[in-house]
Each structure stands twice: as C-alpha cells, then as structure tokens.
C-alpha cells in the first residue's frame, strides 16, 4: 500500500507542477476552447472555476436526493430478498459487516469531498488526488455504469407496477420512465429535492411497515440471527452457512448499501459545503444501513417459518402476504415501483453532473465539451449533459438485462478501491493546515477498506461465474487509461484543468 501511495503521490506532484494556472499551463490554448467559468486568478492564488450551479441545498436536501438514489426500499425488496433466499440468516451478519465496511468507505468520501467539493462524484475526487489518468479511468467507469444502472432500474418498474396495472411491457415502461425521470432531473435542484423527498417518504413508510409487522409478531429471539443458516438444497431444511457464503453475503450487502457517495455529485449546490458535504455523506450512509438491516432482521424474527421464507421465490413479498394480506402487499409493491422511479430521478441528476464536470475539466474533446458545460439560466442545471446521459440510459433499456448486470456487476469494487487509495494519498500530502473534515481512526478506514476490497477481488477471481463481470470492469478501466495516454495527454486543448470551484461558501 505504501508503494502505491508513493507512486500516486509522485505522479500527482509532477502533474501539478506543470499545472499552475490556465495561462501558465495552456498558453497555446485558444479562447474558444477555454471551459466556461474559469477566471484568471491573482498571481498568488490557486486557479478556480466560477460556481455556475445553484448553491441552494442544505444538508437535508442533499441527503434526500442521495437516499433517493440509493432507494433503501428497492434494495430490501430486490437485493435483500435475493440475499435471504441464498444466505438465510447469514444476511444479518453479512449486512452488518458490510455496514461497517460501508462506513469506512464513507469516511474516505467525506474527507475527500470536504477538500475537493466539486461536482462529478468519484471522477472529480480521484482526478484531483491520484491524478488525471486515474480520474479518466474512473470517469469511464461512471460514464458506462450510471446510465446502465438507470436502465436496470427502469426495466424492473413494470414488475412492481404490474401488480396494479396488468399487461405492462417492461421495455416500453422503462423507456417512458427514463424520459420522465430525465425531464424531472432538468428542473431546479430544490424542486428535485422536494420531488425525491416526497417519494422517499413513501418508501421509508413501506420499510417502517415491514419492521412493525415483524416486531409485533415475534416468533424467535434475536439470538437466532447470530447463527448463520441457509436452506440446504438437498434436504429443504436449514443448514449452517459456510465462511465462503458469509463473505458473499457481505459483498451483497456492500452492493445494497452503495450510493452514499452520490452526495458528492451535489457538492457545488450544497451550502457551507466544506462542513456540510461530509455530514451529507455520513448521514446518507448511516440512514441507508439502518433502513435496510432493521427491516430485514424484523422479517426474519417475525416470519412463521424460516425455511418457508428462504424457500419463497420472493421472500419479502411472501412475508408481506403472510402478515398483512394481499391488498397491503399490492399497495407496498406499488410503493416500491415509485421508489425505483425516484432512484432513477436521483441517478439522472448525478449522471448529468458527472458529464458536466468532465466537460468543464476538458476531459473531452472541445467539440463535445462546449455544449455539455451549458447551464440553464433559469434552473441553474446542466441540462445538456443531463439529457445526453438520459439518451444513453434509453439506449441501455434496449440491451438484454443479463448483459446490463454483467457490465455493472464488478465496477463498484474498483471505484471503492480508487477512493480508498485517494484518501491515503491525500492525507500523505496534507500539511495539517487544510480545512475540512478529517476521518477518525486514521489510517484504519482506508486500509481496512482496501483489505475488504482485495478479498472481494480474490473471491471474484476464484469464482468462474464472476469472470465475465470482472473482465468487463477491467476492460472499461483499461479503455479509460488508453484514452488518456493515447489521446488526451498530448492535446493541450483537451487536457484536464482539474480546478476546484471558487465560492465564498466553499
């Protein structure tokens, strides 16, 4: 880990020594290729972008949009239900350990974002810490996965709306949902906070109902959850869950909790950002973990039969039918459909800011970057970039679902690995005078996170079923590096500026 940190530290120092101001570094760059919002700084000041987005979100508004993108209800019903069927009561330990790992990663996000509160999410943080080559690789990961995740979510809407509206075609339903979500994402950010907040209230109420139904019909003590057991395919009864199964349950939990880093996408729209953005990340992570573990535990404690629950095709829906009846189940499943739509809106918001930030940094050719940095005068939203990402999501809806799942399955661990490395490198370069959040228990959070991510990679390499997904993730990252070194690095007119955003509140 120390060798990698030293490599990135040296690489970034060399890059920054050649990038002082737009005038110093890009004397040959014409005015037409300069990104929107770059100002000429005083000789002794670091160059910055002008803030062109609306800095109108408080911590609460940021958290509402971020939680909407995570969609805890969708995670419980879809990912949590699948985990119950495979890992049984091992879900409790698996998701609890995953919660600890997620908090460690959240610490890294919080510290990085408080130092570099720039729209663009992982791309912006990694670029400004590990250097532009790694940043472009992470940009390619997000550029591919965000619209594909929107497509995956949208293709699942018909399954849940279908309990109330029969005959829905999954593809056409997905296309309509993506168009509506993209249009909503082009509205004012505060309007989006209200819209997503209303939807979020509905899905959190559904999770609250699951919790109450489980706790008022307790069938077993909580101690039963501490003994990991899953369905034995041979006997149909419960059998101890092995270490390998428990580790896989942890990876499922990490994926289920993913999305709290999405708070960083809205850094340029968050008030008092250097203090607020860390709180937004940590609150989003904490609420997500609690909102998923508690209902899942309540379901296992309150079901009449654990073997019947784990053997059901849809365990969470089966529990609802058992304890609340069909009418309530239909209502909750429609609520889950709304939660999925809400998540699509929130991810569309993130996607637009990713492309906007990369275009402003000149990580794209000028012909592409110029329209993508346009911001609406009325809504202060990067509407062109948002629409372009929406079009990519529409195209993703036409791709077979298994292809989409393979294309997004292993990218999360790579992204988390870059974030943990970035946190280590940034702290190594710190002088002690920087403002912003500093994670507790340094250097344990990034170090333990890297160990956990390494274990996930080892499991993936040993499991032939994951080779295709891993190969796609490696291919995306390799393409990003090839694009940087083969095209971007040598072109001053399209070379990354990697400036932070100038604002009196930043």
Automatic annotation (TrEMBL):
Main localisation:
membrane
Which residue spans traverse the membrane? 63-86, 92-112, 133-158, 170-191, 198-218, 238-260, 281-304, 324-349, 383-401, 407-427, 439-461, 467-486
The answer on whether this UniProt entry bears the keyword Cell inner membrane reads no
Q: Where in the cell is it found?
A: Cell membrane
Stored InterPro entries: AA/rel_permease1, APC_superfamily
Q: Which GO terms describe its molecular function?
A: transmembrane transporter activity
The alphabetical list of record keywords is:
Cell membrane, Membrane, Transmembrane, Transmembrane helix
- Annotated segments matching region Disordered: 19-45
Biased-composition ranges, Basic and acidic residues, are 19-28
Q: Membrane topology per the record?
A: Multi-pass membrane protein
**GO CC field:** plasma membrane
What this chain does, per the entry, is described as:
Probable amino-acid or metabolite transport protein.
Instruction: Provide the protein name.
Output: Amino acid transporter
